[in-house]
Design goal:
Elements lengths: L4 E5 L11 H13 L4 E7 L17 E5 L2 E6 L6 H9 L5 E5 L4 H10 L6 E5 L13 H13 L7 E4 L2 H11 L4 E4 L21 E6 L8 H6 L8 E6 L5 H13 L4 E7 L6 H5 L4 E4 L8 H8 L4 E4 L7 H4 L2 E4 L4 H13 L2 H19 L2 H12 L5
Parallel strand pairs: 1-2, 1-5, 2-4, 5-6, 6-7, 7-8, 9-10, 9-12, 10-11, 12-13, 13-14
Antiparallel strand pairs: 3-4
Helix pairs in contact: 9-12
């Protein structure tokens, strides 16, 4: 029996990792559903923030990624309307799944070109319609959305929201009659190393895993350390997205007391993240908002309680004894949360670490979540 064929259009894909969550979302989707669907991915042949082609990839042809997945890496020279239309015309597929909202070549133009195909199109905004997403280039985004509504770009489109909040934001921006289906993001299975019992370090070790940019709250996190009196280590991993912003961050780092050791470690391959997290006690991400936050749930899975902002799906963490969710404007409360981490006893830390792992495991093994993603794709085949 032939499996339904899903065409996925996304700006960046493996071996690239700099774009973060969206790539991880697609990898996990494929990993969980490859027995039910065949996937065809159209993407760039370079990573986020780079024009350098992947050296191990042959561009402009279909390449086997796994038994159920093929990837078409488009070179920068061939990234145009004609080539995209040719790719879509020469591949058989049942459903189109478009990631994001604002990319001309991988969100907008594909939607325009695919209007002539009698296929169902699913658009995953990936949090790009959430309020915090408009902190960057707000005028440009709102202008595009106004034009898109005027020309009915999203007419007869199904939107994939990962939670109830995102569904609300989609309908606020694009209209209450928008066709929105909810299916939470799928998660990477736990590795054996994540299941090991953790022992709290002295001094306490924190990890921040995100691109360096204003929306990820790197500066907010660093400024909260200025009045810390305990010894601590903070390692920052991720690509530098905004060089001017990183210069501001470095100025804060240079002025921190000597007992606070902050080190920028650079980008990290996604496959290394579970092993990396095992070396740290707590995970920190004070972003302006996360539509999902793969790094957050993976940190919990590794037994790392988290210190995150209020603007994520993960709420009421202190009561659950798995972390803190805090308003990014409350600098003193953020500082106090850091201090609570550092003075936490070994026994209490073991309890929090265990509960963090158990919480993540309950999310990862939820069969209903997997069935929601399967239904999202399957229900639109041949409609």
């Amino acid at each position: 029996m032939n499996k339904p064929k899903i065409l996925i259009v996304i700006d960046w894909f493996l071996p690239g990792t700099n774009s973060g969550g969206p790539v991880r979302s697609i990898i996990n989707l494929i990993g969980h559903l490859e027995n039910d669907f065949d996937f065809f991915i159209v993407t760039r042949n370079s990573d986020f923030g780079s024009r350098k082609p992947y050296p191990e990839v042959i561009p402009n042809q279909w390449t086997d990624f796994s038994a159920s997945t093929e990837v078409y890496y488009i070179s920068r020279e061939q990234l145009n309307r004609r080539h995209l239309k040719q790719i879509f015309s020469n591949k058989m597929f049942d459903v189109v799944y478009i990631n994001g909202m604002y990319s001309w070549y991988f969100s907008i133009l594909p939607l325009i070109l695919l209007k002539s195909f009698s296929k169902k199109v699913i658009v995953a905004p990936r949090g790009m319609l959430n309020p915090q997403a408009f902190s960057v280039k707000p005028m440009r985004k709102r202008l595009f959305l106004t034009i898109a509504k005027r020309f009915k770009l999203y007419q007869n489109i199904v939107f994939h929201a990962t939670n109830n909040d995102e569904e609300t934001y989609i309908k606020i921006i694009l209209g209450s009659k928008s066709n929105v289906k909810i299916a939470p993001n799928l998660l990477r299975p736990q590795t054996d190393i994540q299941k090991r019992q953790k022992i709290k370090h002295t001094p306490t070790k924190f990890i921040n895993l995100a691109r360096i940019s204003i929306e990820k709250g790197t500066l907010v996190m660093l400024e909260a350390l200025e009045n810390i009196t305990e010894h601590m280590v903070l390692d920052i991993y991720g690509p530098i997205h905004d060089i001017k912003y990183w210069k501001l961050c470095k100025k804060v780092i240079e002025k921190l007391p000597k007992h606070i050791c902050v080190t920028y470690k650079g980008p990290i391959q996604g496959s290394h993240v579970p092993y990396l997290l095992n070396n740290y006690d707590f995970f920190v991400l004070l972003s302006e908002g996360e539509n999902f936050g793969h790094a957050i749930i993976e940190a919990l899975s590794a037994g790392c309680p988290v210190l995150i902002s209020k603007n994520t799906p993960w709420k009421d963490l202190k009561r659950k004894q798995i972390g803190w969710d805090i308003k990014t404007s409350e600098k003193e409360i953020i500082t106090r949360a850091f201090e609570n981490c550092m003075v936490m006893s070994e026994n209490n830390y073991k309890q929090w670490s265990l509960k963090a792992r158990e919480y993540a495991d309950s999310v990862m093994t939820n069969s209903h979540i997997i069935s929601q993603s399967k239904s999202l794709l399957l229900n639109h085949v041949n409609q």
